[in-house]
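Because showing beats explaining, we let one protein speak, sequence and backbone structure tokens together, and leave readers to judge.
___
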Amino acid sequence: MQIEFLGAAHEVTGSCHYVSFGNWNFLVDCGMQQGPDMYVNQEIPVEASKIDYVFVTHAHIDHSGLLPLLYNRGFRGKIFCTQATYELCTIMLKDSAHIQEFEAEWRNRKNARSNRDHVEPLYTLADAEGVLPLFEPCGYSLKVDINDDLSVRFTEAGHLLGSSAVELWIRENKEERKLVFSGDLGNGNRPLIRDPEYIEEADYVIIESTYGDKDHKDVPDYAVLLADAVKDTFQRGGNLVIPAFSVGRTQELLYYFRRIKTEHLLPEFEDFEVYIDSPLAIEATSIFHKSVEECFSETAKHLVDAGINPISFPGLKTAVSADESKAINFLKKPVVIISASGMCEAGRIRHHLKHNLWREESTILFVGFQVPGTLGHSLLNGTKEVRLFRETIDVNAKILNLPGISGHADQTHLLKWAEGFKNHPKKFFVVHGDDQICEVFTEHLKRRLSVQAYAPYSGDTFDLLTGEMTRQGNRELAKKKKDSRMYSNVFARLIAAANRLLTVAKKNEGVANKDLAKFADQINALSDKWDITPQKDKSKKYDE
């Protein structure tokens, strides 16, 4: 019975944790790295075909984004999450696959001009569509028996629509341990979704630490701050461009813009227009409408009950096609543009930055955490020029950061959530934070709660019966920044397929002999077809 930490260990993104006990193997989250690696992440220690389950805390790509790759490599187990997380993953994973394919196509056009190797996308739309039937949505607060040795319950985390902390009970040789994974925790008092719920018992707690070293400032009235930003920008004749995550942050912004309209906070520009330029954000908004009863806060529910759509208003426009997106940059009047991605690493936002960064009259407004190494982080930290679409763009626009508008709990709220455990857990494992922040929050947990706490590195492995480390992982710093575009190792895909075939063959023990013989013949025929071992030249004489 052991846990190995793989991703988001002394880093913020790429969450992935591997647990094995008895004959079972499962993952909690399978996320994509966003921005450069600081440490060299370890691979999942077993073939994908040997993983039985994945439990997903929420739909953000840094927690779910490698599920199609896992499928590509042979995973055919079950994926458990909340209903809203499943619904969001149905659009987000396909959108991610589209980005992988588009960027691989772009890279191959570039490689063809310089005679470089062809690259394959990390995964394809077929992989994303293939993994979706493996999802098994669960309701909040219901304890579900996965098998005789494993049970799960999803508890509201208050970070994103459908986000959850995951409670897991694992049993081996009459021993039981309860693990709680916080996922990403919210601060509470969000305009649309519910507050995080507290959990009272755990043996081991795996807790995020994104803002584990600081507190957010007193929560301002974001509608007023947004109105000020619109007024300032429009008076200068420019556009207000907001890079925002398509899921969660975009919908919150719509809530505040509706307030600006209904409360007449911007009398000088009553008829201003807001463009959502993200097909993913448009689809996600429809999922928000379907999740009122299970996920919405009481405030948002009251609005719905009163016949008020909390995230719609006059002047809200959408751009679905590429032509509609391009047309926004040729409008003759100032507008608000909300576009993805939130860290400016991909998507349509890069086109809007190209058209607005050089304009002194425009404003780029950030409303979320920017991972170091991303374009968004560079802009927030004062870079004077950027490269977009092989062009150097001067940064003349006003760069603003809306303070405190974060989907992550700050230090005080993280500690408060940790204090909710009444049975004194054996150990807290601190993950999902920058290198030093993980260590800072670990020390806060030790002092404040008088508990054992440790910030694992990728590859660190612990025995869940004793709580002791059984293997020290990797402390090696990445030697160079990794390209944010990830591409598939096709040979690795081949080996993964072969490993899956071996796993399937072992599961067929006991099947009728004639069927096993047929299966063996099919494998041998396939092997003969692809065996490229040099054959002896039959024309050569060997009697010399």
Q: What stands out?
A: The two ends are 62 Å apart (CA to CA). Residues 375 and 388 are 10 Å apart (CA to CA).
